[in-house]
Amino acid sequence: MRCLRMLVRILVLLYLAGAPALAQTLCQPNASNGYRVRISIKTALGNQAYEWNENEMFLFRATMAFAMRRYYKTETYNVDNIIVCNQTRRVSFWFVVISPENPTMLIPKADVEKAVSMSRHRINNAFLLTDRTLEFLGIYPTLAEPVNPDTPPWLIVFGVVIGAVFAGIIALLVSSLLQKRRKEKGMMEDGQDEEDRQMKGVENGINLDGIYNRGFTDDDRFTKL
Amino acid sequence: MRFPKLPNPGLDDRIPSHQELERMEKEEAGDRPKWDNKTQYMLTCVGFCVGLGNVWRFPYLCQSHGGGAFMIPFLILLVLEGIPLLHLEFAIGQRLRSGSVGVWTAINPYLTGVGIASLLVSFLVGMYYNTIIAWVMWYFFNSFQNPLPWSQCPVNANLTDLVSECARSSPVDYFWYRDTLNTSTSIGDSGGLQWWMVLCLLCAWLLLYVCCLRGIETTGKAVYVTSTLPYVVLTIFLIRGLTLKGSLDGIKFLFTPDLNELMNPSTWLDAGAQVFYSFSLAFGGLISFSSYNSVHNNCEQDAVIISIINGFTSVYAATVIYSIIGFRATERFDDCLEGNILALLNAFSLAEGNITEGNYAESLQNLNGTFPETIQSLDLKTCDLQTFLSQGVEGTGLAFIVFTEAITKMPVSPLWSILFFIMLFCLGLSTMFGSIEGTVVPLQDLNIFPKRWPKEAITGIVCLVSFIIALIFAQSSGNYWLALFDSFAGSIPLLVIAFCEMIAVVYIYGIDRFNKDIEFMIGHKPNLFWQVTWRFVSPLIVLVIFVFYFVTKVSSNVTYIAWNPSSEDFPTLEVLEYPAWIYVIIFILAGVPSLVVPGTAMFKLIRRCCRIDLKLSAMSLGHSTKNTPVQ
């Protein structure tokens, strides 16, 4: 009986010792279902850069587990399911995700990619980084959709400017005409006969109509003369 | 001792005498427009002279011809060529109280061609110059958004990547060549009208019309803003520029003198050409503006002051531009270096901060020693600040590509963009006032339109016709047409006209009479400096520049640069030869205004001969039949 218990304990101990070793063999550089992560903290934060240590790595694994949970909509994923290896001073490392049900099975690359893409924003923010400084090599960030306003902003400014210009032209032309009318009235009072006055009146009438009716296409009006 | 001059009968009948001028001055007779005050006149002339060339041609010339050393030929030629010609135009306009056609016709009817040539050149140059203003307005309209549209590449249709044409060149290039011009690949490929360009062109011409509606009555008010605002903006940019990293490198690069360049004849040629074109001489606008002055206005002082202001503005603008270019070059250099450092860190998995700008060179050397193949495979770019600084461009490239890129790197970019394009707009518009004056007044003098037509109508017609013809520049190939106009319409004919002007005043009007006129107007005879420059030095300089220009243009193969995304060296611009039919256009642009000068003289001569023949035959008929002559 005691021998049997000891055997079971040894087997359990061997299994527990072997499991991480097994897990480690699953995570290798250029693994078929793994991704390489490259982190540039100093580039992103400059003076306020934090140091990359085991705690930060723990946060990364937790965030990845969160991403997997979110993608699969389950609560089975844990920090242990994210295995990391080959960490360098650059700060870059490889990671793989193992299935919570079967520790020997790796989650396929495509699913991991979708999970990461879905929660990319949350992962970035957990580390105060961006798509450029927290790189998942092989997963390209989807480019932001261009903001397309209904009216292009330049048309609005154009409308304002051209409205002001039209108003200016009309104001100046009208004031020119009024000035001429006043001058002619002054000359008429110096004693011209009725006929001339009528003629001038008719002329003025046509001119005024031209201005009031057609705004700036005065030019066309005059070219027809 | 009288200076030799050509015979010129009947001159006294054609021009008002000194007594008449005094009488006109006292009674303020005539309906000739007048300046409200001296400031308006000075601001208008300064605005006409100071234009886009001061901002985007002079800095480039300065930097490419030996920096500070370029000042020497520039200042020498300013004094020997610019100031005398300016004084001459001011004095003759003020004395004969007429626009360009009126002045030359009064001096001698056979010289009307000089006035007509000025009219044609003002018209052609005005057309393409206002198109540049339309481009400036387009950029101005697009500056009211954050981020600026030329700061990032647009994303392609399926949101997978940036647009290829933009990714291979740069966002500013893409915005200029694609979004603004939608340029075609050659001048023959017209590509149709671009509606947004047509709208901007319409806006530019309407704005010009509203400012020039009543001649100097309206432009005189407008110049208070358009002539002063550029200086304010330049100062703001100088202060902003000096606080940016790398600006002093730019200024140092600009002004570092290379005295060897003084031995190069093209330096002197370019300096002379720059002085000449910078003063907007031979357009007829200055003569016109000066003719609205009172008779005793001190035109000598005006000429000197305006020349000094023009020279100072060139240097000031160059300083500002190169401080910003220095900033841009430093930014590019830093980006280049950062990219290389990142590549090294990634390749060798070194910790961040291991390689910095300081130890980049030695780190690279070490790594190259140990891992040469890896370094090779990385394909690192060579980053050299001097190369980036000497990427100084001129013309539209400077304003719409280099400067706009620099603006995107500055904080609060839309504000700087708005300020910059307002400045360019004001510089261009005040020059256009002179162009319009140089077109409208000769048309009135030539009595092409009935006399009772108001000035508003004539200005409107000129603006409308110019707008319609300028629609060429709103096509896809518009940029190439504009470069064509710029090279030919605004170069050779002006030199011809300026040369003829000097010959006309000195040898046909008579320098002695001219001296007496100036003595009457400003109270003292022009001194020896003016005598020497008017009679010999300035005509000689203009002749030399003309000969060199003509020979260079005729002997060289005329080519242009085109934007072709499918060319091998893209994004470098492709060098193409003009098609054969362009030579007809070149002849119309450069040849017709130049040939109008002798052409009109010949025409008048033939007409006079015909009339004399008719008269003689009529008189002989009259003698024989004792009837009154038909004439």
UniProtKB/TrEMBL annotation, chain A:
Keywords: Cell membrane, Glycoprotein, Membrane, Phosphoprotein, Signal, Transmembrane, Transmembrane helix. It is a single-pass type I membrane protein. It is found in: Cell membrane. InterPro entries: Collectrin, Collectrin_dom. Residues 31-225 form the Collectrin-like domain. Residues 1-23 form the signal peptide. Its main location: membrane. GO terms for cellular component: extracellular exosome; plasma membrane. PROSITE patterns: COLLECTRIN_LIKE. The keyword Nucleotide-binding does not apply. GO terms for biological process: positive regulation of amino acid transport. The chain crosses the membrane at residues 154-178. PANTHER family: COLLECTRIN (PTHR46884:SF1). This is Collectrin, amino acid transport regulator. The gene is LOC109898004.
TrEMBL record, chain B:
The chain crosses the membrane at residues 41-58, 70-92, 113-141, 193-210, 222-242, 271-292, 304-325, 415-436, 457-476, 488-511, 532-551, 580-606. SUPFAM superfamilies: SNF-like (SSF161070). Its main location: membrane. It is a multi-pass membrane protein. GO terms for molecular function: metal ion binding; neutral L-amino acid transmembrane transporter activity; symporter activity. Na(+) binds at G47, V50, N54, S278, N310, L427. Pfam families: SNF (PF00209). The keyword Iron does not apply. InterPro entries: Na/ntran_symport, SNS_sf. PROSITE patterns: NA_NEUROTRAN_SYMP_1, NA_NEUROTRAN_SYMP_3. The keyword Membrane applies. Keywords: Membrane, Metal-binding, Sodium, Symport, Transmembrane, Transmembrane helix, Transport. One of its GO terms (cellular component) is brush border membrane. GO terms for biological process: sodium ion transmembrane transport. It is found in: Membrane. Belongs to the sodium:neurotransmitter symporter (SNF) (TC 2.A.22) family. NCBIfam families: Na_transp (NF037979). This is Transporter.
